[in-house]
Amino acid sequence: LAKTTQPISMDSYEGQEVNITCSHNNIATNDYITWYQQFPSQGPRFIIQGYKTKVTNEVASLFIPADRKSSTLSLPRVSLSDTAVYYCLVGDNFNKFYFGSGTKLNVKP
Amino acid sequence: GAVVSQHPSRVICKSGTSVKIECRSLDFQATTMFWYRQFPKQSLMLMATSNEGSKATYEQGVEKDKFLINHASLTLSTLTVTSAHPEDSSFYICSALSSTGGNQPQHFGDGTRLSIL
After folding, report:
1. What confidence category does residue A18 fall into, taking pLDDT thresholds of 50, 70 and 90?
2. How far out from the chain centre does Cα A56 lie?
């Protein structure tokens, strides 16, 4: 069973910042939070991973509050090519991932 | 780095045929690989965990005799769909976990579209 809950879909416009929140109330001490992006007919692509506080890389930021029961993926200035499904997963990287529904992000011109 | 390659990317075959799908980690060793199935407009569903040198472990409801998994080396796992039928048509995706351990995330292949006529 998926350990996470996300909004099913979100709409945005080009150039906007998009924040996708994920709930993981039963996250375990050893679990990391990992986000993936999937385009149609492709495998998921790794975006970012974090354990606590804030992580930033060249494409996104990940905000994790102190209780770690949720996390927010932040995509700065999205473009049309960011239209995809975004999955939030929790696990300790040695265990299996059970995918939830993901969030379908639709970026409009 | 961390590239996972699947082959073939697409296969169309007749009902009753067995189909083999390969998953390779190109620039790292993977003790563990995972196989997923994804139906249209649905999320990925974990089918089995493939461990190098040992038997795969299957998720509940996945027939191990139907979906044969072999993980003979640290860079290759194969999934064979035996006696495939139209209901087996799906998008099959593998992922690999680096043997170095630590906080390495899973890396996914680009999937194999299987169509059974």
Report:
1. very high
2. 13
